[in-house]
Amino acid sequence: MFCHQCGEKVSDQARFCPQCGVPLREGEQETDHHLDSVVSAADEESNSLSKSEQAAKYSKVRRLLPIAIPVASLIIVASSIAGFYGYEQKVNAQVVALQKRRRSLL
Ligand SMILES: [Zn+2]
Questions:
Q1: Which of 17, 36, 65, 71 is buried most deeply by CB count within 10 Å?
Q2: Residue 45: what pLDDT?
Q3: Ligand 1 mean position to 25 CA, how many Å?
Q4: Half-sphere exposure of 99 toward its Cβ, with a 13 Å CA cutoff?
Q5: Helix, strand, or coil here: 8?
């Protein structure tokens, strides 16, 4: 057969004209639409999959949250206590040093 666009002789089995690339068969456009719908359906599927994955991650976080919050607050409290004790020890050391210096002066 011949391409209806450019008149190039093409094989009867050819879907597209090798010369100008125009779709040659009737219903090719329909097939393209079908392909598009298949692709978009696959996209939707992957979107829903990623959404469910996100939901799974979120539920994981939600499951960990009751554990994570006390642990985090415990770490904060522990570090603040440690920092306070460290500060107190530093102050005590300074006080002791001052007292020693005062005694040596007297
Ligand atoms: Zn052509």
A1: 17
A2: 67
A3: 12
A4: 6
A5: coil
